[in-house]
Write a structure and sequence with these properties.
The protein has 193 residues and is mostly helical. The protein has helices spanning 2-16, 20-35, 44-55, 61-81, 85-100, 108-121, 125-141, 150-162, 166-186.
Length: 193
């Protein structure tokens, strides 16, 4: 039933969309919906339409953000659901290149951490660490809240543990703990909400 409603909504929105860019932003949202659904392969026609559209456009920050999202959705599909790690790396590299020239650079640390995970799954710990360090550098450079670094610290701790660099691994595990403590004491309690 939800699929029927989505397709019906899609047709209605397409008719109301002011321009092709708006329409393809909807396609991107549909791709993300399918990625999170029980049938993630259903994202492919939507992501492919977005990529095809963005490849034919003049590269602008908005177009590049849209392209990056579509490549990232496809990379996640290939990594998590198909175990096609080399393809996920290829797609994520395209997503990274597009996002670097986009108006959505705040998502770069997450994308870099995802790339670190992908290389980790490929047992390339050196590249995994490199991408996680890049994620940390970008989070710092973009002035993102330190609480956003918890998953990056955790990824680095696990990678350094796999590399048997226990001193660095412990350093990052301690940073995870400190960040977690900070989150506990700065988050509003349910009573404050």
């Amino acid at each position: 039933e939800i699929t029927t409603r989505l397709v019906g909504s899609e047709m209605c929105i397409r008719d109301r969309a002011k321009d092709s860019m708006t329409w393809h932003e909807l396609y991107s949202k549909m791709a993300k919906y399918w990625l999170l659904s029980k049938t993630p392969d259903s994202l492919l026609p939507y992501a492919d339409k977005v990529i095809d559209f963005t490849e034919r456009q003049k590269p602008t920050p908005r177009v590049n953000a849209l392209k990056a999202a579509a490549y990232e959705y496809k990379a996640t599909l290939h990594q998590k659901f198909r175990s096609e790690i080399d393809e996920a790396i290829r797609l994520r590299t395209k997503a990274y290149d597009a996002m670097m020239a986009s108006d959505n650079t705040g998502r770069l640390p997450d994308l870099c951490a995802n790339m670190g995970d992908t290389y980790g799954m490929n047992n390339n710990m050196v590249m995994a660490a490199s991408w996680y360090r890049r994620a940390l550098y970008l989070a710092d450079s973009l002035g993102l809240p330190k609480t956003k670094n918890v998953t990056i610290y955790l990824g680095l701790a696990q990678i350094y543990r796999n590399l048997e660099d226990y001193t660095r691994s412990l350093q990052y595990y301690k940073m995870v703990t400190q960040s977690y403590d900070c989150l506990l004491y700065t988050s509003p309690s349910p009573r404050d909400a």
